[in-house]
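It would be a great kindness if you could assist me with a short task in structural biology. The full record is reproduced below for your convenience:
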Amino acid sequence: MIHVYLDDVRPCPRGFVAARTAEECILLLEQCEVDILSLDFDLGWHAPSGSAVASWIAQNGRFPRRLYFHTSSPAGREQMVRLLLPALPPDVELHNGPMPDDVLQQAAAGG
């Protein structure tokens, strides 16, 4: 079980695997069981955004256990949430914002 942090520029928090592109994130979701996934929206000029990942998750049903959104784009966050909500399984936690400190500390400690 891994934690994944999708972002093209921000440093990856301790305890997370960095995905720098939407494609990398999707590969991790395909190949690994993901506990926490934290998504950014803007991933670089002409690059697929976090919405591509959200859309892929919804279409393929490969949900992590917990979803967070650390993007600085309110419109991007809203778009990703709208893509995920209709397909969201009842046992998946979707948090409409970034990870709180206690979640980051727990992940860094190996939890």
